[in-house]
Design a protein that fits this description.
257 residues, alpha+beta, single chain, 9 helices
Length: 257
C-alpha cells in the first residue's frame, strides 16, 4: 500500500517554532506589499480555484447531457460547496459508471480539500513579521482586535514560558506560510482541474477507453494514496463488524438455557 504523502499534506510551520522577537505586526494589504511573490501566489490560488469550480460545472454538463441547461441553472443557485457536491453526486448516481464511484468520491474529497485551502487564503488576514523574511503569518480576522496586544505579550514574556494570556493567538496555533506552502496549495488546485477533466471523460468514453483513463487517473498525485486509505478504512470496518458479530455469537452461545 502507498504511504507516500503529497506535498499539500505538509502543514505550515507554527509561529512557536521561531525565535521570540519584539516586532510590530503589519496586517493586511501592507503586509502583502512587502511580499509581492507570495501575494501573487495567493492570487493564483484564488483564480485557480475558480477554474476548478468551472470544471465541476463542466462535469455536471457531461452527466446531464441534453438536460444540462436546466441543471446548470439550478446548480448556479447553490451557494455552499457541500450542496454543489451533493447535486453533482446525485446526477452521478444515475449517469456515472458505477465501478468508478470510489474514484469519483476520492476526486471530490481532494477538490473539497483544495477549495477549503483556497477559502482559508481568501477569508483570513496575513501578517508580516520582519524577523521571518519571505513568509506571511495567517490570522483569523474575527480576532483581529486582540492581535497587537497578544503579539506584544508573546514577545515580552519570559523565555521559559510558552503560553499567552489569551489563547486566541497562542504561537502554537498560528501558521507561518512560506513560498512552498502557497505553491503546494496551487499544485493541489491545478491537479484538481486535471482530476475533474478525467472524470468528465469517463462519462462519454467507450468501456475499454474508460479503463485506460481510470488507470491514468489512479496514478495521478494524491489519488492512489487516497484510494489505498479508503480501502484500508473499509477493511478495518469489516474486521470490526466481524469481530463484533463473533463476540455476540460467543456471548449468546455461553448463555445458560
Amino acid at each position: 500500500m502507498s504511504t507516500l504523502k503529497t506535498p499539500w499534506e505538509k502543514p505550515p510551520r507554527r509561529l512557536s517554532s521561531f525565535p521570540r522577537e519584539h516586532w510590530e505586526p503589519l496586517i493586511g494589504p501592507g503586509a502583502l506589499a512587502f511580499e509581492p511573490e507570495l501575494a501573487g501566489l495567493i492570487a493564483k490560488c484564488v483564480v485557480q480555484c475558480s477554474v476548478v469550480e468551472t470544471e465541476m460545472g463542466l462535469f455536471l454538463v457531461r452527466l446531464l447531457g441534453a438536460d444540462a441547461r436546466v441543471g446548470l441553472a439550478m446548480f448556479s443557485q447553490l451557494r455552499s460547496a457541500n450542496a454543489q457536491n451533493d447535486a453533482i453526486k446525485g446526477a452521478a448516481s444515475v449517469n456515472f459508471p458505477p465501478k468508478y464511484r470510489d474514484l469519483m468520491n476520492v476526486v471530490f474529497g481532494l477538490v473539497a480539500k483544495g477549495r477549503g485551502k483556497r477559502n482559508d487564503l481568501a477569508h483570513n488576514l496575513f501578517v508580516r513579521n520582519p524577523h521571518i523574511p519571505s513568509a506571511l503569518i495567517k490570522i483569523d480576522p474575527a480576532k483581529l482586535l486582540n492581535v497587537a496586544a497578544d503579539f506584544q505579550k508573546f514577545s515580552e514574556r519570559d523565555e521559559g514560558s510558552s503560553e499567552l494570556t489569551s489563547t486566541d493567538y497562542n504561537p502554537n496555533t498560528l501558521e507561518v506560510y512560506f513560498k512552498d506552502d502557497f505553491e503546494n496549495i496551487l499544485r493541489l488546485l491545478m491537479n484538481c482541474q486535471g482530476y475533474l477533466r478525467n472524470l468528465s471523460a469517463l462519462v462519454s468514453l467507450a468501456p475499454d477507453e474508460q479503463d485506460e483513463v481510470a488507470r491514468s487517473l489512479c496514478m495521478m498525485p494524491g489519488i492512489r494514496g487516497s484510494l489505498d486509505r479508503l480501502e484500508t478504512s473499509r477493511r478495518k470496518q469489516c474486521e470490526g463488524a466481524d469481530g463484533t458479530a463473533k463476540s455476540v455469537r460467543n456471548r449468546e452461545g455461553n448463555r445458560p438455557p
